[in-house]
Amino acid sequence: MTGPEIAAVICRELRAVERELNAYQTEEQVWLVPEGLPNSGGTLALHIAGNLRHFVGAVLGGDSYVRDRDAEFAKRGVPRAELIGELRSAEKAVRETVTRLDPAKFNEPYPLAVLNRRLNTGDFMLHLATHLAYHAGQVDFHRRVVTRDKTGVGAVSPAELASARPIEG
I need a surface site. Which of 84, 119, 138, 154 has the fewest CB within 10 A? Predict the structure, then answer.
């Protein structure tokens, strides 16, 4: 996979999480934690954004973002507009960083050890995309539980991938 293809997958998932947040009927529902669920949709959104802003924007892109992972799980009541702003900042970091990486960089070691392991950058980028997709699914499930709305938000659309082209004729 190329940088633009990886970025397209990650950005597609970020847009799906944004649609999920907008589909909650109230601000309060974003932060509910029903029995049996470990996190609210708001907590997951903060974690998603912080994870990508750190591992992509700061580590690979060299921007000034400083992650506070504990705060991602401790904050409550952050307005939906602010959560969406964080997701959009993560999307910007991904687009600006991943699409511009030299293709050879994906076969080189990721600059940080992860869980005391060395990974190549391409493998870690795929991990970040699947980690995001996992949490996007959790946000979807959370929203459906707290709103009792079974309607989807158009997540995981192949039409949003980098290689998607309309069929002509």
Answer: 154
Residue 45 CA to residue 62 CA, distance in Å, equals 22
In a 10 Å sphere around its CB, with 0-12 CB exposed, 13-18 middle and 19+ buried, how is residue 83 labelled? buried
Residue pair 97/60 in contact by the 8 Å Cβ criterion:
yes
Percent share of the chain, pLDDT over 90: 91
Domain ranges of the chain: 3-151
What pLDDT is stored for residue 138 in this prediction? 97
CATH code for the structural domain at 3-151: 1.20.120.450
SS (H, E, C) 83-135: HHHHHHHHHHHHHHHHCCCCHHHHHCECCCCECCECCEHHHHHHHHHHHHHHH
Q: Residue 74's Cα: distance from chain center in Å?
A: 18
**Average pLDDT of the chain to the nearest whole number:** 96
Cβ proximity of 155 and 19 under 8 Å: yes
